[in-house]
């Protein structure tokens, strides 16, 4: 479970990017975090990944109390979270297989398990036939699916997708989002998608948390809808 | 499933990275070799100067004048007493008859007549018997002087060329200070250059490090391949620098210095092991320390 309580973040004195945030996301939920540029979505993502620390308030993710989490514990916390980036963040000099295996290597998983798990997760994102391709040989959608496989392979409890469709054309965007919904339904993992694409959000009919000027202005199920009415 | 990191991962990643950053690795090696050769050459020069100063020490002597009334037996007893001091290498008695002849020779034939009556008549010789002492350690000269003045009976005067001894000591100290300061400066410059080289390597791998951090890699996991990479740089630099230093030193000492016989030099056999050990220590410490300092900025949580 993710729980923000009276959470605020400021980079400069009295200049708050997030103000007095209260938000609870239960295990297995699928949540869209929406808002315009500069609304505070990126800061929220950074807080969830413990890239930034809260200025005041608390943030608990499962057993981790992030406002008190010491730096040397951060890597172990991050292993509970899978991240999907807008710019994919794939290593160009590694193949698709190596990019996905890399996530297991760095947490010390033995080679034997890597050989078993990587093909399975590549087939899950329908990229088994591209295992030996390099990122430069893939389309945007394929790159994002590699990114997704890499985020999933460590079996995290939470998946955070930061603008996952930002670099994709509309049809590919729906493919990726369908994949995320399917992962949420099949595996029961919590999925948080940070986006500003209204049509896409409405299409999936899920819980939507809308942020404006660092505050939650809407939190409702059933899509974006007409936010001004809330 | 038990999770553990394999040493082969760090080794292979470090080696791959070394070759992938071929130009930067080469630059770091060249810089490190240059720094070590400059430091090494400088230290060898200093060691040889020091060695030669020690040779000059051997010519230093203390002259003790016996009382004019001292008998041959008393002078012999003085010699025996002086030889008991631990800083005395040798002590030779110069009888007053020999001293007056030496003085006569020193002034030349045209003044020889002035010395004739003293040489012919022993009782009229105004010079005392003399004891010439060669000492071992210039730094212990004060205790020797004190010993001669207080413990040895029949001493008329002790003549110590303290100014020479002091000058030798001062030269040694100045050389030592210059050596320490210059070596220190060179090491700081080397550390700075190696640190920058690592930073450039890190910059080129920033994306990889960012991904590693997001996925949950620990700082040790991220840093170790860089440490391996810089250890390879240190190893290659040590081997090449030691080879150049030892062979150039051997060539200079055996072919040039020995041929012209200008100064005494320390044999290469006495220094080669110290050169390798010193270079290895300096390069590994510089590389590993430089890597850890440079990677710290990228290790924030």
Give the full name of the CATH homologous superfamily of the largest domain in chain A.
Answer: P-loop containing nucleotide triphosphate hydrolases
Mean pLDDT over all positions of chain B: 82
The neighbouring-strand order within the major sheet of chain B is 2-3-1-4
Query: Alpha-carbon distance between the termini of chain A?
Result: 25 Å
**Largest interface (CB < 8 Å):** A-B, 27 and 23 residues
Unreliable stretches covering 5 or more consecutive residues of chain A:
none
Tell the overall outline of chain A.
Answer: globular
Structural class of chain A: alpha/beta
Protein model, in words:
The complex is a heterodimer of chains A (230) and B (301). Chain A is α/β, with parallel strands linked by helices and 230 residues long. Helices cover 33% and strands 27% of the residues of chain A. Chain A folds into two domains: 1-80 and 158-230, P-loop containing nucleotide triphosphate hydrolases (Rossmann fold, 3-Layer(aba) Sandwich), CATH 3.40.50.300; 89-155, no CATH class. Chain A contains seven helices and ten strands. Chain A has a six-stranded mixed β-sheet with strand order 6-7-8-3-9-10, sandwiched between helices. Chain A has a four-stranded antiparallel β-sheet with strand order 2-1-4-5, covered by helices on one side. Chain A is globular and about 50 Å long. A four-stranded antiparallel β-sheet of chain B has the order 2-3-1-4.
Give structural attributes.
heterodimer; A: 230 residues; alpha/beta; Rossmann fold; 2 domains; four-stranded antiparallel sheet; 7 helices; 10 strands; 33% helix; B: 301 residues; alpha+beta; Alpha-Beta Plaits; 4 strands; 72% helix
Topology overview:
The complex is a heterodimer of chains A (230) and B (301).
Chain A: E1 2-12, E2 15-25, E3 30-34, H1 41-48, E4 56-61, E5 64-65, H2 74-78, E6 81-84, H3 96-105, H4 111-124, H5 140-152, E7 158-162, H6 170-187, E8 190-195, H7 198-204, E9 207-212, E10 215-220
Parallel strand pairs in A: 3-8, 3-9, 6-7, 7-8
Antiparallel strand pairs in A: 1-2, 1-4, 4-5, 9-10
Helix pairs in contact in A: 3-4, 3-5, 4-5, 5-6
Chain B: H1 7-20, H2 22-57, E1 61-66, H3 72-83, E2 88-94, H4 96-107, H5 112-120, E3 130-135, H6 141-150, E4 155-160, H7 162-204, H8 206-215, H9 219-260, H10 268-295
Antiparallel strand pairs in B: 1-3, 1-4, 2-3
Helix pairs in contact in B: 1-9, 2-7, 2-9, 4-5, 7-10, 9-10
């Amino acid at each position: 479970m993710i729980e923000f309580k009276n959470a605020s973040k400021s980079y400069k004195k009295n200049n708050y990017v997030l103000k007095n945030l209260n938000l609870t996301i239960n295990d297995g939920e699928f949540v869209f975090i929406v808002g315009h540029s500069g609304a505070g979505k990126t800061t929220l993502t950074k807080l969830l990944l413990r890239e930034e620390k809260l200025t005041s308030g608390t943030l608990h993710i499962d057993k981790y109390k992030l406002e008190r989490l010491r730096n040397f514990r951060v890597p172990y916390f991050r292993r509970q979270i899978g991240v999907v980036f807008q710019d994919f963040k794939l290593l160009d000099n590694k193949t698709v297989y190596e990019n996905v295996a890399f996530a297991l290597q760095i947490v010390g998983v033995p080679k034997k398990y890597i050989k078993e798990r990587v093909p399975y997760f590549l087939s899950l994102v329908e990229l088994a036939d591209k295992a030996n391709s390099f990122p430069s040989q893939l389309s945007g959608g394929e790159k994002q699916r590699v990114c997704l496989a890499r985020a999933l392979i460590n079996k995290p409890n939470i998946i955070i997708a930061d603008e996952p469709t930002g670099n994709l054309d509309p049809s590919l965007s729906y493919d990726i989002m369908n994949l995320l919904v399917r992962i949420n339904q099949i595996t029961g993992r919590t999925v948080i998608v940070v986006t500003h694409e209204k049509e896409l959000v409405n299409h999936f009919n899920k819980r939507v948390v809308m942020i404006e000027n660092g505050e939650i202005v809407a939190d409702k199920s059933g899509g974006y809808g007409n936010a001004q009415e809330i | 499933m038990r999770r553990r990191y394999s040493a082969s991962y760090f080794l292979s990643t470090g080696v791959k990275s070394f070759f992938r950053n071929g130009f930067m690795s080469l630059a770091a090696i060249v810089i490190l070799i240059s720094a070590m050769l400059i430091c090494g050459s400088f230290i060898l020069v200093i060691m040889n100067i020091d060695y030669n100063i020690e040779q000059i020490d051997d010519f230093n002597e203390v002259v003790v004048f016996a009382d004019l009334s001292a008998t041959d037996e008393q002078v012999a007893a003085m010699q025996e007493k002086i030889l008991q001091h631990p800083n005395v290498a040798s002590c030779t008695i110069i009888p007053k008859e020999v001293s007056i002849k030496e003085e006569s020779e020193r002034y030349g034939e045209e003044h020889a007549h002035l010395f004739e009556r003293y040489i012919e008549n022993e009782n009229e010789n105004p010079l005392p018997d003399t004891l010439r002492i060669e000492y071992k350690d210039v730094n212990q000269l004060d205790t020797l002087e004190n010993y001669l003045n207080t413990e040895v009976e029949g001493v008329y005067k002790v003549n110590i060329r303290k100014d020479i001894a002091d000058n030798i000591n001062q030269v040694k100290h100045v050389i030592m200070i210059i050596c320490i300061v210059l070596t220190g400066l060179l090491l700081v410059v080397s550390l700075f250059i190696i640190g920058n080289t690592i930073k450039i390597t890190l910059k080129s791998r920033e994306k990889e490090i960012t991904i590693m951090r997001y996925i949950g890699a620990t700082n040790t996991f991220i840093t170790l391949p860089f440490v391996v990479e810089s250890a390879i740089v240190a190893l290659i630099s040590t081997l090449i620098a030691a080879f150049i230093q030892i062979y150039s030193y051997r060539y200079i000492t055996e072919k040039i210095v020995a041929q012209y016989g200008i100064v005494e030099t320390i044999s290469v056999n006495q220094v080669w092991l110290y050169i390798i050990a010193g270079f290895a220590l300096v390069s590994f410490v510089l590389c590993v320390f430089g890597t850890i300092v440079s990677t710290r900025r990228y290790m924030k949580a």
